[in-house]
């Protein structure tokens, strides 16, 4: 039977400065001694975000590939190891099926064999996932606000605009005139391919599909 410790810090700065890593490892060692175990090896994840699933982290992937039936993993806290309740419960189920014990010190010990600890584990995992959901919602709200204010959020810059120095989309006069011409030609009944050819003659290489998108943005009525 082997005993492995798992610790993690989120940023390279923390890893370089050793912030919390030493404390995490000492906590794992102390817990192991308390239950008459000896840690054979520490897996230290340096500068890896908690948003990365355990199996996708360098040290986490190696740990999961190494453990055998009867082995024990010790980690100081839930958030050192898992990004969400789904990730946590999936890994927990696989470890339990393989006969590997997982001890989380902040949850009171072995979460693979203690009913109360498993209950707390599930609840706290769900809380952690809910918190990350709220963070994603806040990010979405910020992007929505930036979009409404004409901020450039990445990707291809729309025809008729350029990115200003403050990150806002700024109209390009010549291209805006071309857009007005496309809208007028469509209103006259000209087909999209014909409009595309007119634009090409004016120096704008725009496909008929792009013409449709541009007109719909400028004049949202159905084409």
UniProtKB/TrEMBL annotation:
One GO MF term attached to the UniProt entry: DNA strand exchange activity
CDD domains in UniProt: SR_ResInv
Species for this entry: Microvirga lotononidis
Annotated Resolvase/invertase-type recombinase catalytic domain residues: 2-150
Gene3D superfamilies referenced in this protein's UniProt entry, alphabetically: Putative Large Serine Recombinase, Chain B, Domain 2, Resolvase, N-terminal catalytic domain
Keyword annotations from UniProtKB, A to Z: DNA recombination, DNA-binding
Listed transmembrane segments: none
Protein name: Site-specific recombinase, DNA invertase Pin
Domain of life: Bacteria
Record InterPro entries: DNA_bind_recomb_sf, Resolv_N, Resolvase-like_N_sf, SSR_resolvase
One protein family per Pfam: Resolvase
């Amino acid at each position: 039977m082997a005993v492995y410790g798992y610790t993690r810090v989120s940023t390279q700065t923390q890893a370089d400065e050793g912030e919390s890593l030493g404390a995490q490892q000492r906590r794992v060692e102390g817990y192991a001694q308390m239950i008459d175990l000896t840690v054979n090896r520490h897996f230290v994840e340096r500068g890896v975000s908690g948003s990365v699933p355990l199996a996708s982290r360098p040290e986490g992937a190696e740990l999961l590939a190494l453990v055998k039936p009867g082995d024990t993993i010790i980690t100081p806290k839930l958030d050192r190891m898992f990004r969400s309740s789904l990730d946590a419960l999936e890994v927990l189920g696989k470890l339990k099926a393989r006969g590997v014990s997982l001890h989380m010190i902040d949850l009171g010990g072995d979460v693979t064999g203690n009913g109360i600890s498993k209950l707390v584990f599930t609840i706290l995992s769900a809380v952690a996932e809910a918190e990350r959901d709220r963070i994603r919602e806040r990010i979405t709200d910020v992007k929505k606000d930036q979009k409404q204010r004409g901020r450039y959020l990445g990707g291809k810059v729309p025809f008729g605009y350029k990115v200003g120095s403050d990150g806002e989309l700024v109209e390009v006069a010549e291209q805006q005139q071309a857009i007005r011409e496309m809208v007028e030609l469509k209103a006259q009944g000209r087909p999209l391919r014909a409009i595309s050819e007119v634009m090409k003659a004016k120096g704008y290489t725009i496909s008929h599909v792009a013409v449709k998108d541009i007109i719909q943005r400028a004049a949202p009525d159905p084409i």
